Amino acid sequence: MPRDEIPPGTLYLLILKTLARSGQLHGYEIANSIQRISDEVLQVEEGSLYPALQRMLIKGWMTAKWGTTAENRRARYYQITMTGRKQLTAEMARFERVIGAITRVVEAV
User: Which one of 6, 23, 64, 77 has the lowest number of neighbouring Cβ atoms within 10 Å?
Assistant: First the structure.
């Protein structure tokens, strides 16, 4: 099955939701989790993921610390903050509003 691009404006939502669900993850684990849970439909490219993570750190939505992976590689581990959880709530509300509007347009007779 072909992979699709992540819809514009949803990357923060997907990252925050993944961290809220899974706890502390490094970048590759975040991208892999989104791909796996979406049944391989969504793929987060490195060129989008890491700049987004950096912006989210600056906004205070997550914290990061360096650690070692199971493969003994150095990686930065991210964890959602309380501010990030509030942002996740706002992102979910915005997403549901947009999806509802799209659904109404598509299903209109």
Answer: 23
Geometric angle at alpha carbon 37, from 68 and 53, rounded to 5°: 50
Q: Which two tokens stand for residue 25?
A: 């993850």
Helix 82-107 to helix 46-59 angle (10° resolution) is 130
The runs of H, that is alpha helices, within 60-81 are: none
The overall average pLDDT reported for the chain is 93
Report the SS3 class of residue 62: strand
pTM for the model stands at 0.90
Cα separation, 67 vs 49, whole angstroms: 19
